[in-house]
Amino acid sequence: MQKRRADSAVLIYICLAAVLILGIRYFEEVVGWISRLWNVMFPLIMGLAIAYVLNIILVRVERFYFPGSKNRFINTSRRGVGIVVSILLILGIFALVGGLVIPELIKAFGLIGRNVPVFMEDVAVWLEEHSRVDAVKYLEGLDWDDLVQKAIAAARSGLGSVLGSTISVVGSVVGSVINFFIGLIFGIYILSGKEKLASQLRRILSAYVGRETVEKLRTVYHTADETFSSFIIGQCTEAVILGTLCTVGMLLLRFPYAPMIGAFIGATALIPIVGAYLGAAVGAFMILTVDPIKAVLFVLFIVVLQQLEGNLVYPKVVGSSIGLPGIWVLAAVTVGGGLMGIGGMLLGVPVAATAYKLLGKDVNRRNAARTSAENRRRENRQKQEEQRENARTEQLRKENSPKESFEKESGRMENSKGGKGRRKGV
To answer: What pTM did the predictor assign?
Structure first.
């Protein structure tokens, strides 16, 4: 039996080594195959993500939708109503933020567009006043035919690249929209039958995987589910608090664009650590178009607000819920952003928190098992020493007791008498 297990382990290692060598040898083909597989599976993965986020709201909506009712229609419609309400809530939040941010952004860029010609005229006047070169003679010495031909060639090449870029962008946008709706439909189907899907998954795991592996997978799932749900709820709560504080503070300090910038900073605060600063950069740029001094004061206000939020609000609302130290939060955001952009920033923290919790549980389990084994060995050694000490004590007690001494003396006398009798007989 042991030999068969050893042969199986050797065969598995050989197969893994062969797969690794083939992967290195055909690395580009493997990467291309993985990329195509990811593109095919992306709508389904997006559907799983949408279903998970909607489920956080769905569970709470179902608790308030006539709990304990025995009406058949209410019980039948509870899931459908919960899904619709969850989608409408998320769409309402996006519509609110977009309604506050987009019109003000359009106004700000319109203001910039109106001020650019005035700025260029001022620059031209300044150059004309301070320039030492005679502009008329310089312009007369230029080869205008050559310049026109170059401009036409640049316009043709630029037009082709613009058309190509436009087609590529339109195709990408259309593909993203299609993938989103496919993912949304897939997520709705998952939420509609989540209990049945969970039961089927448990049966499949029980049939093909050992009980110990099933328990490990269940531990990983529950840890990840707890971490991700706590992170999403905490991050949304923290974003609402930060956006509200920013809006109220800007209104008190009479900064322009207060509702818009507050909503935008609250939305970007969903990205841990760096999100609020990204929103603050956009807000400072918009205030700069109105009053540069207020833009500087706004930056100082955001720095103070972010320090208060990072030291008071974030540790209470998000930090305690995910249980991840600040240094690892920063590392997760940096690595996730470098690998996957904004999506990596959002997913990096809960993924790192899940790994951190699982590693902590495994370390505690191993240390507890090692401590328990050491305690058992220590107890066994103590028992053995006690047994040897008891045996030694019992031996000494027997040697020093009167009855034992009398029996020994009698035995010696009998032995001496037997020796004398034997000598007489001889």
So the answer is: 0.69
